[in-house]
Amino acid sequence: MFPKAGFGQIARSVVDRFRPAKKSTLGIGGYFTVECLGADGKTKWKAKAKNGITNAGLNHVLGVEFHADAATIAWFLGLIDLASFTALAAGDTMGSHAGWIEITTEYSEATRPEWTEGAASSQSITNAATVNFSITGTKTVKGIFLTSDSVKGGITGTLWATALFAGGDQAVVSGDTLKVTYTVNATSV
User: Model-level pTM?
Assistant: First the structure.
């Protein structure tokens, strides 16, 4: 016969052996940090925007990692206009985002500015140098997005993420510069 304490230890050992492995969940998300400098070079405002990853973005990650889909070589930032805004949606794509429009004419860059990411470290990726928008008009910016299409107003490619400024809409005028950093993180829970 087993002593009572010994039997309990053996029983726990048997139960632990047949217990399913701990499940983990992949979490992925990020945030944009935006600083608006006036023509005088002084900070006018700063804003953060926590992104929502679109369904298309999640499908892109799964396709690249588990189905041999082609990886995206470059990503680009775009600005979301306050005009006509109603909502962001997980189902938004570059070809279909009924709740918002893109700002395309109020900055001087010929294409959407490229987000040049650094290497992954500590389950995080960010850009070392800011992505800049040289503002040429008056506009109210609602938020920001990341896409694989460089064409202003373009409707192809993958819409990775969209985000609204946490502190509310932000005004820009000609001569301002928006300096953007985007950080994306992955976690296992």
Answer: 0.87
